Amino acid sequence: MAVDPSLHCHECRYCRSGRGNLCDNWAAIGVTVPGGAAEFAVAPVANCVKLPEHIDVTDAALIEPLSCAVRGYDVLKSNLGSEVLIYGSGTMGLMMLELAKRTGAASVEVLDVNAQRLETAKLLGCTGAAARAEEFDRPGGWDVVIDATGNAGAIQDGLGRVAKGGTFLQFGVADYATTAVIEPYRIYNQEITITGSMAVLHSYERAAALFASGVLDPAVFISDRLPLEQYPQAIDQFKAGVGRKIVVQP
Ligand SMILES: [Zn+2]
């Protein structure tokens, strides 16, 4: 079983219009109520997705972040043959890379200042990997630019890399106080779209189906598996930016 952690109130204006991820009373298992960092957890039946027998449930923790990436792609409505640029090759950037490949991108280029992380993007078959966008010869920009860093510098750089008629997706979670400069004339004159995607919306069950079909290789995405007793060490390792997804096994 895999569990969609979203707890929408079903009463507010956003829930009633089918946009529960924007719920005025947004809550989630593991965020606002006790979650999976325990031997047992409670979840509404409606949040549970039965997994096929061949799925190892200890890998299935990847379905939740994948469901956020699926939501991101829903927002993008990406066309076949798009040129895609992704900032960040952490797990979320890598998941966007996997979805870009499967939604018919003509090319997917990945940026990261961490050379070790870029190696994983190369392993997963990105078209190009670099520390700076200047290293790619694409003066016209990219149809789709995705920030998967939340970093102010990356976001600012990315906003200027969107091709005419293209879309910038704010997918990474920036600090509340982060700001960036936009160019209103260019947004008008070149019909640039700047949008965001927030968590999970009607995307969890599809992410589970994609996961069951092998869209992600758990051996690549999960770098460490720690027992529940070592939860503090897992948090420390995550904060230090070492490895990719760290699975805590109750
Ligand atoms: Zn609501």
UniProtKB/TrEMBL annotation:
Domain Alcohol dehydrogenase-like C-terminal: 92-212
Domain of life: Bacteria
Key words, A-Z: Oxidoreductase
Oxidoreductase among keywords: yes
Chloroplast found in the keyword field: no
GO MF terms, alphabetically ordered: oxidoreductase activity
Family matches, as Pfam families: ADH_N, ADH_zinc_N
Function: Catalyzes the oxidation of 2-deoxy-scyllo-inosamine (DOIA) with NAD(+) or NADP(+), forming 3-amino-2,3-dideoxy-scyllo-inosose (amino-DOI).
This protein's name: 2-deoxy-scyllo-inosamine dehydrogenase
Source taxonomy: Bacteria, Bacillati, Actinomycetota, Actinomycetes, Kitasatosporales
